[in-house]
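Submission sheet (multi-component)
Chains listed below:
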Amino acid sequence: MRVELYNTITELEGVSVQGAAALVIDVLRATSTLTEALANGALAVYPVLSAEEAVRIANSLGRDECIVCGERNGLPIEGFDLGNSPREFTPDAVDRRKLVMTTTNGTRAFIAAQDADRVVAASFLNLSAAAAAVEDAERVVIVCAGKEDRFSFDDTLCGGHLIEKLRASGDRELNDGALAARALARSNKPSAKIFGQVAAGRALASIGLEPDLAFCAQVDRHELAPVMVDRVIRAGG
Amino acid sequence: MRVELYNTITELEGVSVQGAAALVIDVLRATSTLTEALANGALAVYPVLSAEEAVRIANSLGRDECIVCGERNGLPIEGFDLGNSPREFTPDAVDRRKLVMTTTNGTRAFIAAQDADRVVAASFLNLSAAAAAVEDAERVVIVCAGKEDRFSFDDTLCGGHLIEKLRASGDRELNDGALAARALARSNKPSAKIFGQVAAGRALASIGLEPDLAFCAQVDRHELAPVMVDRVIRAGG
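Outcome: structure written.
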């Protein structure tokens, strides 16, 4: 197996993902939130880039069946049903609903990965299941959403732990990003404390969303590997 | 002290370096080579982007006093005096000469950092001296050249070891890149073996330049902190 990890979406530019299995990571918070939502009964997640696109897609799907959600600078968007805190996406809130989600970095990462043979959403919440979903691939491309095109500690740390989960699968060839992420994972576990030291976590804490850090640091809360097909993410299987 | 590390030149876009001290790193090989050259008696290094610019500057400085050097895809450029292997830059070759150097990634990193209050060239060859040269700064920006706008393990590893060298200086605030690079440094030392596993090192080995890897992995071979002023790099002091 060849494993490549890219710390930002920009780093992935010029790299073909065709034929590969892609793992898309936005720990704080897009992939954590959509994993939680799908585990709690949501039917599908539609990742979109803009608030306008979100409203348009929700109207075309049937506005009453949809939850329109997402954030700008971490905060909910006016007129939307929910923000992007995984704690909001309870079974009561999302069961049997379609989610139209716009986020700053996460959506861009899914779009960047969309030409892969398989596109799987990964977070600490579904770490083992996400790794298992690409275990048979010859080439795995890990796409870290990053934060405004910069390295994000939490995303690369999750990428490193995914690589560690893949370790049973024999000989592997790692690119520079994957080698470094694996080293990072071997010396760091996810925790609210460490997320509190990184840019994405500090930004959330500064707007009163510190409980999201501990939530998103939970490992293997769900046995679920969400898969994106034709720009729609479903529970997989 | 606040320490920021950027893994690629692209990551630095939009970040002002004014008022900061910058450490520029291109381990394989621009900053290793220019450190070796200045330690061996070269008067100055002029980093330039293109072969054409190199020839033009050498002619304006006096072609006979200059050594025109550099690489494209690791190999020397036709008509140039030297390539970019540090092993070529012996005292016999460079003493009292001016070097006009064009490299793929290193030159771009120097240009990206040029608005800083102080721009210091760093490599493993001059690790302690480079760290000491910014020890009094309130803000240190570490610019990793990377490889074609992608994460380069060797550059970020060197950045992490520089941060470790700075550790005596009291309270520090680290950005995400610096936090991760420090973790990488705590679990990895530079060596020909590890450089042989990364993209830049594999590329050199594939064109017969494997001895450069062990050369560039030497720690503190020189007590020298090259400083760039007005686009000219000198031995500093």
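Remark: Residues 45 and 99 of chain A are 5 Å apart (CA to CA).
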